[in-house]
Amino acid sequence: MEDELEKNEHKDALKELEMIVLHLIDREYSEVINQDLSLEEKIILLANEFQNRLTSLVTDWIRVGYCQGNFNSDNCAAGGFTLDYGPFGFIEMFDPKYQSWTGGGMHFSFFNQPVAAFKNFKSFCSALKPLLSSNKEALEELEKIENKFSKVMQEKMQNMWASKLGLEKFDFELFDELINIMIDTKVDYIIFFRELSNIPHNLSSLEKSFYGNLKDENIKLRWNSWLEKWKVKINVNDEESKQKLSNQMKLTNPKYSLREWHLVWAYKEAEKGNYEPVQELQEIMTNPYDEQTKEIEEKYYTKKPSDFFGIAGISHVSCSS
């Protein structure tokens, strides 16, 4: 009785938990979980399916440069999406520690999103465990699923990075070297990977994504060395294979992302009664992988202006922004 009071339970708590879980399955997973299965079987399938959705979600976030900003368990829907759309941000200048929320810290930073997701998944599994307490086999199966989360996440992330780089197989050394040069050079995340998708002949084609001038000869040498290694790995022999790989990479690397300074301008115009910028942004962001007119490209396929760095509401937001 004392334990029940401490946990704020009541006699129907377990039954209510079962009803909630069955409602979740019916609402979000009815296409993949058969209603004729036993409760234990449904829970095991649910954990597997949610793990698959959650790991895919976070992998795609990082692929397109999205940082949720506050991805704790109460903002992580059990259907495999997020409930909290703020304070989020799309990364511009690449930084693994990028975080647009002033109170977010490292835990919810750009490259730490898989770790935040794992913590959320552990919370999810702990909520399911009471329903399996009388079935040792099912409980062990759930714990196995919980323990394989990091492996599933890592595999998806590695496959994603391989796709972004046009590689058939993930190459840690090549990836690690690139990330370090990107940080040291200060590159625009979206523009860099899109320009790389053109399979450039030399470094000058990538400079469109650099926030600073390449004055450091050492960094130039590092870039040229990396590009040579990358070209060996992608193994493009002729114009046809180059075009094929380029098209493939462009399906993975978007050309446009929702940059905060474009949004700020659009809603300020909307306040004046001019909804054209909002409509234009909506049209572009509905098809972010497509090439647009030269006018649209000059307007929206551009690095963040230096004046906008460090500005509240553009570079960072509070929880109530």
Structure description:
The structure is a single chain. This protein is mostly helical and 321 residues long. Helix content is 54%, strand content 2%. The chain is built from 13 helices and 4 strands. It has helices at 2-6, 13-28, 39-64, 113-128, 136-147, 149-164, 172-185, 189-196, 217-234, 239-250, 260-271, 276-286, 294-300; strands spanning 66-67, 76-77, 81-82, 89-90. The strands form 2 sheets. It has a two-stranded antiparallel ribbon. A two-stranded antiparallel sheet has the order 2-3. α3 (39-64) packs parallel to α5, α3 packs parallel to α6 (149-164) and α7 packs antiparallel against α9. The longest helix is centred in the N-terminal third of the chain and has 26 residues, at 39-64. The protein is globular and about 70 Å long. The relative contact order is 0.10. The model is unreliable at 1-6 (pLDDT under 50). Pfam families: SelO. This is Protein adenylyltransferase SelO family protein. Keywords: ATP-binding, Coiled coil, Magnesium, Metal-binding, Nucleotide-binding, Nucleotidyltransferase, Transferase. Residues 128-155 form a coiled coil. One of its GO terms (molecular function) is ATP binding.
